[in-house]
Write a structure and sequence with these properties.
- The chain is an alpha/beta fold and about 375 residues long.
- About 50% of the residues are buried.
- It is built from 16 helices and 12 strands.
Amino acid sequence: MNIYQSGDEGARRLPISYGEWEERARQVLAAGPFDYVYGAAGAGDTMRANIDAFQKYRIRPRICCDISNRDISVELFGARSTAPFLLAPIGVNSILHPEAEAAPAKAAAKLGIPYILSNVSTLPMEKVAEAMEGAVRWFQLYPPKDRKLTDSFLQRAEAAGYSAIVVTIDSTLLGWRERDLRNTYLPFLSGHGMGNYFSDPVFLASLDKPPEEDLRTAVEKALDEGNHICFTWKELDYIREQTKLPLLIKGITHPDDAVLALEHGVDGIIVSNHGGRQLDGAVATLDVLPSINEAVNGKVPILLDGGVRRGADVLKAIALGAAAVLVGRPYAYALAVAGEMGVREMLQNLMAETDLQLAISGRCSMKEVDPSFVVKVF
């Protein structure tokens, strides 16, 4: 990477570090939207634990290695990603930027990084697919109570060229989020994040009045569909039967659940605690990654979500068993600051940092990043 030789003065006026992106986003956003992204469940202990967990490991570099030809790409389900990370599913992007999900989707597409579209995107999945053209995209599913609606979402995702389904099972109820409560802020009530519901024929047929005539009732119906508190492994079996696409389950933090997920036919596991937004005081995702990796034993790819802020974080997660990681809040802040250009700049910086970290550690590819890459210090 020639990051130090870049002469793009416009880009250099944008933030470099995660902390700078966060602070600039705080300056440009109102309290409600900023706190919706920044906030976490309860006292925020889980969110902090996700970040702090990376400090328990230190990289152990090797010297006198030929690092002239490096490659930070990875392959997932037959598709090549230019970097070992994906854009995590973050909903209601319209509260951050007018282009909503189209902006990060286009940035990811231009850089060859897979984008996971949130079920609660403001733009319908077809519009986002159109913006990405042939680029790799996955669709996140908050399993609806209505199986017909589940079928419709899956069919639409397949028709729109999404190449994997990410079933998220750790958000059947909203966590205790004090910042949102203090701001009395729930963006869905204004119609944000409703793009996939309000464009779905099955959902619209279930309403007495269309959303434009009775927004509140339509939103409450959509939110009720997402609050699937009776979701069990049996329901996952149903989803598995409805699609031939690779099926990943997001929200695993216990190795026993990882084993059960394998028994129920998943093709991938995402170790996640929803960025600390659901259960306060929960285990950090990096802390449990090794035990889940041991339980899965290479049968399916494992991805890590939560606390990834820097290139060193990416590589530490790979060393502990992740095939790739998900990046969330960093791109959300970049989106708020500078739209598509901001997301693209943030991703390019993370790619450059990951590449440099890899090289200075004496490795040339992700295949060389194994458990010997790190040492646990406490």
